[in-house]
Amino acid sequence: MWSPVILVPAILNGLMTGAVYALIALGLTLIYGVLHIINFAHGALLTAAMFAAFFAHQWLGIDPYLAAVGLTPLFFLLGYGLQRFVIGPAAHGEDRNILLVTLGLAVVTENALLYVFRADTRTINLPYAFDTIEIGTAFLAVPRVIAFAVVIAVALALWLIMRFTDTGKAIRAVAKEKFGAELCGIDVAHIYAVTFGLGTACLAIAACLLLPTYYVNPTAGNAFVLIAFTIVVLGGMGSVSGALAGGLFVGVVESLSGLYLGESLGQIGIFVMFILVLLFRPSGLFGERT
Amino acid sequence: MPILAVVGLLAAVPLITSSNVTLNFMVMALLIALVGQGWNLLGGFGGQYSFGHAAFFGTGAYVTAILQMRYGVNAWLGFVIGVAAGALFGAITGLLSFRSGLKGSYFALITLAFAEVLRIVASVTPITGAGVGTLVILDLRPEAFQFQSRAPFYWIILALVGVSLVLTRMIEHSRFGAYLVAVRENEDAARALGVDATMIKLGAMTVSAAMTAAGGCFYTQYFLFIDANIAYGPWISIEALLAPIIGGIGTVFGPLLGALLVKTLGELAKLVTGGAPGLDLVIYGGVLVAVVAFAPRGMAGIFVDLRRLLRKAQERGDG
User: Fold this and answer.
1) Which of A128, A154, B93, B155 is least enclosed by beta carbons within 10 angstroms?
2) How confident is the model at residue B314 (pLDDT cuts 50, 70, 90)?
């Protein structure tokens, strides 16, 4: 049971799954860090992205990895538009209202998908879905290795954007001090929308990485987003590196608890962890106490 | 006084119509009004938005069902214990959350998490009947809280709504209610003036949970069946907040008004689409966004605005 032959592959697989969790959490934490709201529509938007990737393959025969190239800018625009024209104006500057608006958007998106596509669960068949590569004693599924690599690349790209571009600097300025940034001539509404767009674009990439090995139905995104909430709280709200570390950590915890406790208990384990962290370390395991 | 008039008026409905469809519709609307009033007390008056009121609804529903089926407890007693269990659960979760200083997004998250944990637990543990759910055995006697026709059910839920209205009105006019609103408007300022904000929020959450749990207990008796997705599913959490927000958040009559409106919209959606799943919720979500965007004070706010407009028009007419 504790031999490295079982343990090492479980940990490696956990890291691979955790990478996708981390990407979803990255989008959530980015939006939280700047807008200081929790985007309750995150799960529904992930589901929408998964449907988009699914039908890109089904109707147009586009490979999910290739679809990411088109879907990412598309979802950036969608996120930008949602924040700029729906969430922002509807909220009247009240945080409580933003909660309700994103919840409303989630309900609309999820149920529109349910209405159009029914509750059927869909999967796609790809020739390479079951290919594996061997690392030491572990066999790793190729799609998961690709996902891991892409997530690292995306995180790096995001870091570069935030660090070196003017937009990135403006985003960080708004996150730190909204009013001051506005006084310096930064268009806060625009930056909010850009941030929301970036967060949504992360979802499009995550969806394309998930699809080769995962199914899609109108509630498929929710499971991931509850995990993403856990990760974001664990890593400290608004912290990008915290989201990455938290994602990988949760992936490993889930993989190990699935191994030792069984599937359904593993799911509860994540929630219990989530509630405990919220209650006792609301600033996150890695964040400083406020 | 207006409460008496409204409840009296509604009490006459079964005398006018004996159509089961109409009564069923009214029962569901009143049920949502009751559950929504629970949410409104905490969310509307206290400013603490819960996204997981299903936790209280489901606890009430399951406690009533399990007490009857497994322990042979009388249904009426089960109802009372169910409400108490819901209140207790509200007090415990409230104590945990408020002691940790959770508010805003964090409070919404943790309430959601509590409801989800309960949903998963209820769908696997044997005592709740796991995935199959719990059936309450048919026993059509008033002593068993079951009736031949729908009218008695209707009057009972109406009475419960009436009690919730009176209770909310009393809280609104009490010192406790004033503190609650103060905490909503500015918690730090309220604390600085000596209001024990944690205790106030805790009290509101307990009463709120009790009202919502009463809705859950009633649900069990009315449908004689409960499972994890009904009891702890997101649908009830959403309707609980939808009704007061649409009707008028933080007002006594908001939840009742909103519940009637929401259920009417839902029925219309079903009529148009022939009951295809999803569309009614699409409309609910859309209405939620639209109300927050264009009428933040709900229907009650629109009425106030209309009355003001009328008065202005009258004054202009007089002058």
Assistant:
1) A128
2) confident
> What single DSSP character describes residue A113?
H
ipTM for this model? 0.79
The owner of tokens 């998961």 is A144
Query: What does pLDDT average to over chain B?
Result: 88
Contact A107 B117 (CB under 8 A): no
B15: domain CATH number? 1.10.3470
Query: How large is the average pLDDT for residues B189-211?
Result: 93
B258's tokens: 């909103």
Cβ atoms within 10 Å, residue B198: 17
Residues from B in contact with A at Cβ < 8 Å: 47, 49, 51, 96-97, 100-102, 104-106, 108-110, 113-114, 116-117, 120-121, 124, 238, 241, 245, 273, 276-279, 281-282, 284-286, 288-289, 292-293, 296
Find residue B135's DSSP bridge partners. Answer: B225
User: B33-47, B84-98, B266-280 — which is least confidently predicted?
Assistant: B266-280
Please state, rounded to an integer, the average pLDDT across all residues of chain A: 85
Task: Report domain extents, chain A.
Answer: 4-280
Residues linked to residue A122 through DSSP beta bridges, in sequence order: A216
> pLDDT grade, residue A290 (50/70/90)?
very low
How many CB atoms are located within 10 Å of the residue A219 CB? Answer: 17
8 Å CB contact between A193 and A88: yes
- Domain ranges, residue B230: 2-318
A218 touches chain B (CB under 8 A): yes
Would you say residue A137 has pLDDT above 80? no
Contacts of B78 by beta carbon, 8 Å cutoff, 6+ apart = B63, B64, B65, B67, B68, B145, B217
Looking at the domain that runs over A4-280, which CATH code has it been given?
1.10.3470
Residues with Cβ < 8 Å from B23, sequence gap 6 or more? B13, B14, B17, B150, B151, B154
If DSSP codes are grouped into helix, strand and coil, which group holds residue A118? coil
In the block, tokens 């490979």 appear at: A63
State how far the Cα of B289 lies from the Cα of B273, in Å rounded to an integer.
22
pLDDT at A38: 82
Band of the pLDDT at A289, cuts 50, 70, 90?
Answer: very low
pLDDT at B256: 94
Interface contact flag, B100 A100, Cβ < 8 Å: no
Q: Which residues on adjacent β-strands are paired with residue B241?
A: none
Using the 8-state DSSP alphabet, how is residue B138 labeled? P
d(Cα A64, Cα A212) in Å, to the nearest integer?
Answer: 7
